[in-house]
Amino acid sequence: MMFLRSQAAVFLLIAALTATGFVGSQGYVPAGGALAISCTLAVVLAWRLHDGRWWCLIHALFLPAVVVVHQLALPAWYFLGAAILLWLLSGSAIRDRVPLYFSGGGALQVLVERVPPNARLIDLGAGTGRVLAHLHRHRPDLQLSGIERSPLLWLLGRCSLPSAIDWRRGDLRRLDLSAFDCVYVFLSSEPMATVWEKVCSEMGEGGMLISNSFAVPDVRPDDVVDCGDWKGGKIMFWRIA
Ligand SMILES: C[S@@+](CC[C@H](N)C(=O)[O-])C[C@H]1O[C@@H](n2cnc3c(N)ncnc32)[C@H](O)[C@@H]1O
């Protein structure tokens, strides 16, 4: 939402400058200059409004990408196809407020080293099952499960994961967690309070919640480990008392 607001603010400003004749072929600033101003402004807004500095790059590239795609004059069905693909990949992000991104190599290494021996672990919101595939290779003692809501990501996982991994499609909020000792999540800030409530009420004493990057509101983790990646990612551990 913040992304759209920032880009909309930039767009409205440039539209106003164009309407008043300040920008454009007859104005003080040529169209190319207007693009440079827009990108700079978007980067300044991103710097002020977003936490991760990588947002600046996304904001800087967004408008030039729109201009390039517009000039390619692609047929309309390309856009329809892209929209359908996006919806299949990440449509639930609108409702769940959890976009798709993958745990990095640093996070995977922390998991390999820190997940307790012989744990029954589930990845809630498992994407294509990348975390589970990695743990399957490097921690054969674990019993691994994953649940994913997006039909396309689930299908990719179904086709690529070994059959020893319990791979489910569905909503993590409806899953009973009592059969697991260890829950891994890499979601967003949005569902963390709900995840914590579920974990506390459904998992037995001694269970463990592991979250990549997103904290449980107002609950201090028992342990925090740096992933050593460029984003400054952290893996947080909570023991269920
Ligand atoms: C940031 S990705 C993490 C993928 C993977 N766990 C990893 O660490 O690489 C979050 C995933 O959670 C899924 N997701 C979001 N809300 C969900 C829900 N309510 N039920 C099941 N999956 C959900 C999204 O579709 C997305 O694939």
Account of the 3D structure:
The protein has 241 residues and is of the alpha/beta class. The protein has 2 domains: 2-73, no CATH class; 105-239, 3-Layer(aba) Sandwich (Rossmann fold), CATH 3.40.50.150. It is 48% helix and 14% strand. The protein contains 9 helices and 7 strands. Strands 3-2-1-4-5-7-6 form a 7-stranded mixed beta sheet. Helix 1 runs antiparallel to helix 2 (31-49). The radius of gyration is 22 Å and the shape is elongated. It starts with a helix and ends with a strand. The model has no long low-confidence stretch (mean pLDDT 89). Bound molecules: S-adenosylmethionine (SAM). S-adenosylmethionine binds at residues 92, 96, 98, 100-103, 123, 125-127, 130-131, 147-150, 153, 171-173, 186-187.
Q: Which properties best describe this structure?
A:
single chain; 241 residues; alpha/beta; Rossmann fold; 2 domains; seven-stranded mixed beta sheet; 14% strand; binds S-adenosylmethionine
**Number of H/I helices:** 9
Share of β-strand residues: 5-15%
- What overall geometry do the principal axes of the alpha carbons give? elongated
Biggest sheet overview: 7 strands, mixed
| Derived structural class | alpha/beta
Portion of residues in helices?
A: 40-55%
What is the helix/strand order? HHHHHHEHEHEEHEEE
Question: What would you report as the Rg, rounded to the nearest angstrom?
Answer: 22 Å
